[in-house]
Amino acid sequence: MHRRRRTALTVSAALFAAVPLLAACGNEAHPGAAAVIGGERIEVSAVQAKVRDVRDAQQASPQSAQLIKDTGQLGRAKLYDLIVDRVVQRAADDAGVSVSRKEIQDERDTLMKQSGGEEQLAAMYLQQRGVAPGQLDDAVRRDILVGKIATAIGATNSPQGQQRLNETFTAAAKSLDIDVNPRYGAWDDTKLELGMYKAPWITQVSQVTAPEAGA
């Protein structure tokens, strides 16, 4: 057995509904880009593809009307995810931690058992985090990385530990020189926010005991 920190799963659907879905278009500095991070572009088309995947999954859900209503700013949420993926990866690189394919699968298996099966797990992520089934591995990978980063930097499950973790992500974000298309809002390195949008999972770290990989 080993101890591992994992980010909380629940993201209030209300956070996705604060502002309408924003139409994406290029700005003068980076036409066609939703954001430029560490010199690499995130294309508007990539964000739109993520949005389509979620909308397709929502349309297939018995709660489709409510899910769509609760994710009014889905374009911003998907861009936020793509930005934070890169921020977490930079922090992981700096901390010298990584995640294997087996760890992702093991974590998925654990989550499936906890939620009652694969369909239930997919429905939970879709409802709580706006994550389509095809995006689930990326979300799980990011959660595992956040936990490993917390362990590597000694960020305990305390206000001081949380502050240390936030400072680590802020430093990683600043090093990437994140430039966001103003159609999606402005990125704040210190608050880890995109406009008024901030998913709370990144600042909710809990300690759990899980079976060791391969046990």
Write a concise synopsis of the structure shown:
The chain has 215 residues and is of the alpha+beta class.
Explain how this protein is built:
- With 215 residues, this protein is of the alpha+beta class.
- 49% of the residues lie in helices and 13% in strands.
- It is built from 7 helices and 7 strands.
- The strands form 3 sheets. The protein has a 3-stranded antiparallel sheet. Strands 1-7 form a two-stranded antiparallel ribbon.
- It is globular, with a radius of gyration of 17 Å.
- The model is unreliable at 1-28 and 201-215 (pLDDT under 50).
Task: Set down the secondary structure blueprint.
Layout: E1 2-7, E2 33-37, E3 40-43, H1 44-59, H2 64-69, H3 74-95, H4 101-115, H5 118-129, H6 136-153, H7 159-175, E4 179-180, E5 187-188, E6 193-194, E7 205-210
Antiparallel strand pairs: 1-7, 2-3, 2-4, 5-6
Helix pairs in contact: 1-3, 3-6, 3-7, 4-5, 4-6
